Amino acid sequence: MTQPDITVYGAYWCPDCRRSKQFLGEHQIAYRWVDIEQDKAGEAYVLAKNGGKRIIPTIEFADGLLLVEPSNAALATKLGLKMTAERGHYDLIVVGGGPAGLTGALYAAREGIATLVIERAALGGQAAATERLDNMSGFAEGIEGARFADQLRQQAARFGVEMLQAQDVADVHSHDNYHCVGTADGSEYSARALLLTTGSRYRRLGAPGENDFIGAGVHFCATCDGPFYRGLPVAVIGGGNSAAEESLFLVSLAEKVTLLVRGDQLKASQVIQEKVLRHPKIEVRFNTEVVRFDGAGGKLKAVTSGTARAPAPRSSTPRVSSSSSA
Question: Model pTM greater than 0.85?
Fold first, then answer.
């Protein structure tokens, strides 16, 4: 594996560090993380580069440029991400650049419809962060998620689709015969039609401590953040395809993977279930619900789980009868 060209100096408790790491992760951009509270050489480097000030995040690029406490817009500019469209008006604006949005856009563009795609993160959506897609028609041996997303992007571009990424949609409204889309940087684009393909968000558990440790032990993308936990025990929460596939990816990095499943069986496809259940480095705990997340020094230290009872009719919230550390 090649050494990342970007180094992020920061600390786990720093919210701006978490934001920058999340931005890079969403765009599948590799980086090296240096915790200056654990790495004294890293701390000294930050102090030297910032005139004796301990300012984080300090992000260094391969060309030697440093960005200190950069905004997402500054990061996007440095990374060469397109932030402004070439025109103000289009026949069609697609909000969301995942597989559905890019597919719809390329079909429209093939018919001569001027099309703009606006995506808040990386083109390809959650599919791009999936290690491997085995259920995609036309790929008999499966395909890596990042490669599939790149193929979609290239195909859309070949038909003339214009694409913006790292751009949040802040407002959608109608004006006379047009639909208008306002972005977070203050730009506004109009179109005769809008296609909303906003995808899905990662589900949150709502357990105490979860939000406190996002980016500091709690993550939603194994391929993005798994390498930070090389050789360490990790837990994956869930029993569907996503959780099972992330577990299979993490076994190549982690010492051991514990899969916490709220129900009494996995809901993943049969072939993935078989791989998980027979893997020697994956322990599956059924009827298990996460009760809380605990940590110290800004880092997650433990996940406390309990036995999940079957929900009452019409209720989707299991009750916890006892707890143990996982």
Answer: no
Residues 255 and 177 in one domain: no
Give the residue ranges of DSSP H helices in 184-253: 222-225, 241-250
- Domain finish residue from 58, 78, 98: 78
Active site residues: 221, 224-225
Residue range(s) defining the domain that contains residue 168: 89-196
Q: How far apart are alpha carbons 188 and 172 in whole angstroms?
A: 9
Residue 137: phi and psi, rounded to 5, are: -55, 140
Q: Tokens for 320, please give them.
A: 């916890």
For the chain (326 residues), the mean pLDDT of every run of 10, in chain order, is: 79 84 82 91 94 92 93 86 90 95 96 95 78 78 85 94 91 91 92 92 86 83 80 94 92 94 93 94 95 87 83 42 32
Overall domain count for the chain: 3
- Please count the residues of the chain: 326
Of 56, 78, 100, the residue that ends a domain is 78
Q: Which helix (H) or strand (E) holds 40?
A: helix 40-49
Do 229 and 135 reside in the same domain of the chain? Answer: no
